[in-house]
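Changelog-adjacent note: as of this version, every example in the card shows the full chain rather than a window. The one below runs 719 residues end to end.
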Amino acid sequence: MNRTEKESNKAGGESISTDRIEAKIADRDAEWTRFLKTRYKNELGALSREYPSKRSLYINYHDIESFGEVGIQLSDEMLTYPGKVLSDIKDTIRVHNLVRVKKGRDKPNIHVRITNLPQKIAVREIRSEHIGTFISVEGILRKTTEVRPRITLAKFRCAAGHITTKSQGYGPFQEPDGCGTDGCTLKKLELMSYMSEFVDSQKLRVQESPEGLRGGEQPQNLDIDVSDDITGIVTPGDRVVVNGILRSIQRSSQGMKSTIFDIYLECNSIEISEKEFEEVNISEEDERLIHELASDPQIYRKVANSIAPTIYGSDDVKEAIGLQLFGGIAKSMPDGTRLRGDIHVLLIGDPGIAKSQILRYVVRLSPRAIYTSGQSSTSAGLTATAVKDEFGDGRWTLEAGALVMADMGVACVDEMDKMDKHDRSSLHEAMEQQSISVAKAGITATLKSRCAMLGAANPKLGRFDEFVPIGDQINMPPSLLSRFDLLFVLADKPEQTRDNAIAEHILRAHSIGELIEQHRHTPIEGVDDAYIEEYLKPVLPDIDPVLFRKYVAYAKRNCFPRLSDEAKDELVAYYMKLRSLADPNKPVPVTARQLEALVRLAESSARLRLSDIIEKGDAERVIRIVDMCLRQVAYDPGTGTFDIDRVTTGIPKARRDLIRMIKETIRAVADPDGRANMENVISQIVAKGVVREDIDTQIKAMLRGGEAMEPKHGIIKLI
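Full-length structure tokens:
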């Protein structure tokens, strides 16, 4: 339509875009009847039996599209003129009595809901041309309001008893100017709630998925209006695909109407992305490459080399993170209990060991991951918060935090030791039960946080002291440390050969970066893409990051291995060997938590090969990794045994024995008032072979902790 035509249309009082509003007039009744009777006979029968508890007919868009030549026309009309087409389908069902209800009931009011639209539009790509069309939007649910009734047909009564009906749409409540009965001039009307018609209503706010965002971009939101039987089926943090008609509503400020309109989506159907990593598309060629990789005997080395290749060494850590990305299998038991399959890994290391770099790289590799720093995170930001704002008419709503957003993925939390202790306590439930219970502002809810956690922390005193228990060196409670399947201590010890290799690796990476930047600005003679590729080889990952993401998604979607008898025997033998180290005078070396960690890691090892069976080799591999971690964090050099209490309770058995000995000695030498001479107590314990410095340290700790008091200098009394 040219400019003059548009102007003449304007002058005639017509809308500018008349060509869009004029739908092609055709008798669609027969075509929709044929389609519904051919493709949806069973669904219509089920609706007849279950109405009114079930009131929606779900139609797959692809079924319409594949319904011959007519189907293509019908599906195109559906996208362009959704209001008319949905109304046509409802009329067809009503006129031809396709849904039969019991005698005495009114004709059924059936909703037609369309799913599986061909193209999803990003929230930031919605434009004015989409208004009034049928669109599909994908994202994460950030907020939901509670389900409340919305009036659709209001009935009013005047003082004379006449009833006036006024239909209500979205937006402000519409009242009639006066009584609608002929001859009645009364203006004052009363709303008759019990005669009016209501429908369940809920508002949602969807935020675009973080995967597609470029650096520095803030995720955009879209408000959704949901009504009737699809209300209350989603919770904050769910990955959803919302199909609906884009509507606009005029802004107004202080009673003045604006030319700017706000948009919202009138929801037709909601699809919840149940399967993890559903958003990763894998082609047949990708599948072939993935199977090639899985059958490679060097696959474990390749996976380790594909994680942060610019960082030298830390091969054991990289292998463990590779297993964490693939994950174990979450099991739902018949009695309702759930065993987690996600593997939690904590890296505790000296500064400058590239922990944060590894975390950032993992976010790139995992098909779904969230990165956050503990220093700038609160418990509300990690879990969920209740907010009160204009959304939902000033009501309290839940807003999902980082751990809920990382559901079915990896949550990378840096600087965990810098977190406030009250904020850190919110991680306990999220890590073990993999849910987050919220009781705020009258809202009690449980959100899912089925994510693996990769944490990084620094020692309390800046650097590691290998002679001090790990619990004393890290500013984290033992109850939280015990929830990690693997704890890696990354100590920065000078070692000439290794230091030389690291120096060469770092300088090579920098020189390659310099060469690329210089060549980009002023081309260097003799340097081409092949030369740069050859030069880049030492710092390039063995598996391309894009393929790696698809590999992880494919394995998680399709591979569910089970333990072979050989692997089972191997794991049990290792567990029993460690448990057998315990006797009444020795610490308990390992708990059932470590055995569960072994099983999860073995599942992940088999999944990495796309194997359906966990073999003996998988068990041996994970035993090697777990054994190495236990030697780093739970080995007690004083007794020469493993003491898992050094991590899980923060108090080694040797210290517990010393505390008991001090208390017994104080009671033995105390006067009737319970007071004992401190020097006398210490000399008696020294006589039993305990070092005096250890006794002094422990007595000071007891005084600080409130277990004992010092009424006057040199005198100690138990509290």
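Structural remarks: The chain has six domains: 3-115, 123-272, 284-500, 501-539, 560-648, 653-718.
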